Amino acid sequence: MNEIKTVIQEKIIIEQNVEGLKSTSAPINDTWSLKDKSIPTEGGGSQIYIPKIRLK
Question: Domain Bacterial toxin spans what residues (predicted)?
């Protein structure tokens, strides 16, 4: 891969009680997006993973 893509953030409202796993990224050198180039990233992005089986 030799391309950096823009991430689209989306917020949704879940109208039921569910449990999820929240993770927050750490700063890291991105060595996989561009061949032979390392790009430092700030980290701090968060996501919440909710398995589809939990949504009914």
Answer: 12-49
| Residue-by-residue DSSP string for 35-49 | TT--EEE----EEEE
**Secondary structure of residue 45 in the 3-state scheme:** coil
Q: How many CA atoms lie within 13 A of 6 on its CB side?
A: 3
Tokens 């990224």 sit on residue? 25
Taking the whole predicted model, whether its pTM rises above 0.85 is answered as: no
How crowded is the C-beta side of 31, counted as CA atoms within 13 Å?
A: 2
In the structure, what pLDDT confidence band is assigned to residue 33 with cuts at 50, 70 and 90? Answer: confident
